[in-house]
Amino acid sequence: MGETGDNSTIDNLGKRRIPKLRMADYPNVDDIVRQGLLERPRPENAVDILLVNPPTPDRELWIRTQHRVGRRTRENMVWPQVSLAQMAALLHPTYKVQIVDANAERMSWSEFIKKLEEYQPRYYMTQITAPTLENDMYGCFLAKARRAITIAFGTHVTPLPRQTMNPYPSLDYVLVGEPDLTIRDLLDHFEGKIEERPPEILRLFDKHDPDYKPAIKADGSLDMHAIKGLAWRDGDEIVVNSPRPFISNLDDLPVPMHELLPFEKYRMPLIKGPFTFIVTSRGCPAGCTFCIKHVSYQYSTRLRSPELLMSEMWQLKKMGIHNIHMYSDLFTVNREQVVDLCQRMIAEKIDIKWTCNSRIDYVDEEMLGLMSKAGCWYISWGIESGNEQILRHVHKGAYPDKAKQALSWAKNAGIKNWGYFIIGLPGETEETIRETIEFAKELPLDIALFHVAAPYPGTPFFYEVVEKGWFRKGTRWEDVDMDRGTVLDYPNLSAERLLYWQKRAFREWALRPAPMMTYLKMLLSDWSTMRTALSVGLEHLSWASTDSGAPIERE
Question: Reading across the β-sheet that carries 149-153, which strands appear in turn?
Fold first, then answer.
């Protein structure tokens, strides 16, 4: 191949000229992108912000709400993403909003990418939890590659904003703490819509943050440091701004946009047909050191009024939803609210079946009877342990002597009892585990589940585990998951032994006539609850050991 001297080459056949490629002769690629020459027109259904619960590996079901995290749900539940629906209501109609709950839809990553292409969001917002960290970040990566601004909230990024953002450059912003007002404030500033806020949004900021001022400098430019509750990138530095005050009156929030959720896909054991959540309050005054609820809301308790809750229930009933879980950190935290709500449900004959959670020290016989008449048919109780000293160490504040009384009141009122126990809290021994198993057998429980303790970031339990060196070597954030395995290695109880006792506890409790009848009913109800029974039973009943206590293989 010979040179011609005229900035071209001649191929070896000498028949055609091929121009040399010199980058100096062509426009800068970044300039092309900035000019939008490589962009495709946005489709009509493109959105301003996409609120996302991303896909999961192998299309497993994951428990996933702001305060209930886990890699796999042994209960086979599909939990409503009402926190996303709440934020959608705060942004609509100023912004075009859509929710994608890929978990509920059993969506693959390739299907999810098609949704990103369809909606082409300018902003992408997702919740991030410890057990789902890398999975959630993959969603951010896909959105960022499509030029969306990525935003995260949740119980993992709130205590660890810098540690989360540093290794994941595809995450642009973190909403620290309660995210509702921060996401609205952030978008209004970015989109220059501070002056266009409707009266109800203006009242929210004025009422719940008396010191609020728009983050605008004297020269009219944006002051990123002044947006409260935000973590962001300033060059190579991660900046965490001052915290944003909590919303003191939850009645000031709009009703969540349930219609954006795939509510027909949500499932809970023993429920036929779709269900959803109604958030009745935020926060819990109890001091449990292992509880992730306090990471976002600390120890404040804020209620929604019974009037507003009834209005939301009627809306859901018109949508064809007849089963509701009263989602809160502690549903019975305020007796007056619960009694008022139940009396209204009875008087208005709304005829909705509902479930809730509670503590054994926040109920009484009269209130449980009223709850049953109003449609409550099961309560989940965090009982945790049968050993009082272990409960005292974790500041539970509710002890075994009250459990039997509270659960008996509920059973006598016609309410089913679902008990949760934790194996491996500090101070645990094989003797105290044995004590918990026997205690669980004595209680009037319809269903019992035994989890291994999980030291979630930001909880006092997490810092205790770090201080005492109880983390298993090689632990990753994704391993901090009470629904999958354990990251704990106590001097007297290895991770393998904790898992062995977790499975043995369920086996001993479940292989008795009354619990077996409950699971049989679940099997006979419908396909979704049959899968629930099988997934719960088979996972707990199968392990590579005998009753001699030989350790199992770690998952």
Answer: 97-101, 49-53, 123-127, 149-153, 173-175, 230-234, 237-240
